[in-house]
Amino acid sequence: MGLSTVLTAVRDAVAPTAGIDGSAFYPPPTTIAGMPCVIVEAGEGQIDQGATEGEIEVWTHTVKLSIFACEGYRKEMYGQAVDLLGAVTAQFRSQLTLGGIVAVCTPTRYAVGRLTYGLAEYTGATLTLSVEEKFAVDLLP
Fold first, then answer.
1. Overall pTM > 0.90
2. Domain segments of the chain: what residues?
3. Residue 24's closest CA among 87, 105, 111?
4. Fewer CB atoms < 10 Å away: N or C end of the chain?
5. Residues 103, 63: Cα–Cα separation, whole Å
6. What tens digit of pLDDT does each residue of 36-63 get?
């Protein structure tokens, strides 16, 4: 499994969310054409290596979701941003199937308010996920 597969699976999990209605993007677009929408991006990751044959190797991916409610920072849209954040977060309260492999997906951080993308400001939220995959280590050539 690769990072691109993880990001694509997260995008596909978000797309049917009520209010988003298919407007989930990975790879990130150069501009935002319509709202509400979600943009999926990679953060830092960590690999914990198994030391001997048959041990488990754990890959932990950090995935950032930017949830855009409307163009411009408008306090009256704050409630909609909170609702979208809740709906998107609900998609990740369990395991996520990535190309037939089950991964543990845990929401770890969020923020609501002003977002910047390119040179424009938006009202929205961010959600950070930790996606953990485990593999048996095969040290033989």
1. no
2. 3-136
3. 87
4. C
5. 13
6. 999 999 999 998 887 666 678 888 999 9
